[in-house]
Design goal:
Its EC number is 2.1.3.15. The chain is α/β, with parallel strands linked by helices. The chain contains nine helices and nine strands. The chain folds into two domains: 35 residues, no CATH class; 225 residues, 2-enoyl-CoA Hydratase, Chain A, domain 1, CATH 3.90.226.10. Helix 5 links the parallel strand 6 and strand 7. Helix 4 runs parallel beside helix 5.
Length: 261
Amino acid sequence: MPNGLWVRCEGCKGMLFKKVVEEKMFVCPECNYHFRIFSRDRLKLLVDENSFEEMWANMVPCDPLSFKDRVTYPERVAAEQQKTGLKEAAIVGKGKINGREVMIGITDPSFIMGSMGSVVGEKIARIAEKAMELKLPLIIISGSGGGARMQEGVFSLMQMAKTSAAIARFQGAGGLYISILTDPSLGGVMASFASLADITIAEPKALIGFAGPRVIQETIKRTLPKGFQTAEFLLEHGFLDRIVNRQDMKKELFRMISYLQ
């Protein structure tokens, strides 16, 4: 049997015909598990065809600390760029949703787990400023399990304050900001721009929080509530406004923007 015809669902553990999963927008037809997807695939699902104009696509990180673990930081970045076809963990730009113009940003978990370094923070801040300039709604889709990027030290941590300040200026000018949390949404991204929206939406069963549940449990030495840090748990406790299936996301975004903008 040729390789690549089947994929394993992490939700129900079933073997699925890959073409069927792709036709369902990378959602399991049996249990509704939402697979992690590349940022470019997500763009195809959310914005109108040929409407996306990427901005600041050639920004790449520097190596302020001369950081090295198993390999140097520049070597790690180069390997990630080759593996993913991305320059960095965030794609930002202008697009249309059913004809309505929006500014949109996406962090991609396939690039160093979507961690936020200086380039990701700068792109998020710039897209917020551009949305304020053009008076357009701002949509940011977070898929970040890496938090602030340790290879850049304090330069990475300061992006939390920078992106939060940019979002605050945009909202202070009357802008509409919608945050979409996907699996995973953790760390410094979740502790900054991802949690500051006017409307916060999540995909089903997305892992959302600051530290992961295993780290918390090992630190406090207590058993956590069932489903702790899932989208459903957070909706029940008032952290989220809605949970929206991926197949319905574009329609729901258009409805919200049409009503609120």
